[in-house]
Backbone:
């Protein structure tokens, strides 16, 4: 696997993600311990959930109890449904364990990289995504541990990490804008997100906006 | 409910949504679902970018964020939609605006 050119390309392309996700991991580690999680549970949560959005929502809603947290997880998870369908389409028939492994780290960042690489003609999307996933997972775990154990002396927000993360997704979306329909979908997504931000609970904003813009794109196709 | 059960619950929900279409190999969706899946990643990534760059109303750094977003769009146009072009120019505009605003 390590000698596979697609694997090496995935690892190289994901270096930036390792850094960015690592910084967010630090922020999560700081917040989770601050919210009352033990350091070990904070690290364990990153190891088995592997979802920045769901984990930030979890610690943010900790005082509200389990129901809002589970609802938030469902709301945030809705976006994974079309992502998993698209990934299944890309990887084709694969052993069950491979599909489960790829699903375990089906996150926005490496999904975006994989889609981009697939569109560019990468030879082995499974090896590519595996490498990108390993990079992301490494950054997320190390970042979380650093935040949980040494967080009091670190301030990721001061470095403007949130903006870099937004720009990362803008950069991932850029090559996908090819035809008039794509411009319209992007524009509708911006407007829908702004509306959702002011009208919906945090957990539902991104999923709702993305679904709404996709439906508009579907209507344009027809 | 203790914190460990909470973490496990969130993990189960998250993994369930991720594995939904990967558990059993199926034919690629066609028709309306296929076209929906075609545009969904773009809509999702723009929504996430907007949420991080433009939507945080009341943030003291909103103007710097907007400068970063504008720089990112210009970087995408100038550098043929390269990821690094978007990130590089976007980050440069953000940090410059933040320094100017103070």
Residues:
């Amino acid at each position: 696997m390590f000698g596979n050119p697609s694997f090496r390309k995935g690892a190289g392309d994901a270096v930036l993600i390792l850094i960015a996700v690592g910084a967010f991991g630090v922020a999560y580690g700081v917040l989770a311990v601050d919210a009352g999680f033990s350091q070990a549970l904070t690290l364990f949560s990153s190891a088995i959930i592997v979802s920045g959005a769901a984990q930030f929502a979890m610690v943010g809603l900790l005082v509200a109890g389990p129901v809002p947290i589970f609802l938030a997880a469902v709301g945030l998870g809705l976006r994974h449904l079309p992502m998993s369908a698209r990934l299944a389409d890309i990887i084709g028939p694969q052993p069950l364990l491979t599909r489960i492994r790829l699903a375990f780290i089906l996150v926005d960042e490496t999904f975006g990289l994989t889609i981009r690489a697939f569109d560019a003609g990468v030879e082995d999307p499974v090896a590519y995504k595996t490498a990108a996933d390993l990079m992301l997972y490494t950054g997320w775990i190390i970042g979380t541990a650093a935040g949980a154990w040494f967080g009091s002396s670190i301030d990721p927000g001061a470095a403007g990490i949130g903006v870099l993360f937004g720009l990362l997704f803008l950069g991932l979306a850029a090559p996908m804008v090819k035809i008039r329909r794509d411009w319209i979908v992007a524009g509708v997504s911006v407007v829908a997100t702004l509306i959702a931000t002011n009208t919906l609970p945090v957990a539902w904003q991104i999923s709702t906006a993305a679904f709404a813009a996709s439906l508009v794109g579907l209507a344009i196709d027809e | 409910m203790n914190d460990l059960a909470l973490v496990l619950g969130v993990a189960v929900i998250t993994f369930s949504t991720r594995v939904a279409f990967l558990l059993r190999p199926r034919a690629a969706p066609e028709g309306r679902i296929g076209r929906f899946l075609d545009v969904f990643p773009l809509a999702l990534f723009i929504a996430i970018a907007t949420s991080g760059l433009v939507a945080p109303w009341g943030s003291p750094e909103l103007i710097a964020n907007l400068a970063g977003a504008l720089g990112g769009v210009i970087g995408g146009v100038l550098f043929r939609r390269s990821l690094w072009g978007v990130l590089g120019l976007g980050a440069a505009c953000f940090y410059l605006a933040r320094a100017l605003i103070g």
The mean pLDDT of chain B is 85. The CA atoms of residues 21 and 28 of chain B lie 10 Å apart. The helical segments of chain B are 3-19, 31-53, 62-78, 83-101. Chain B touches chain A through 70 residues (CB under 8 Å).
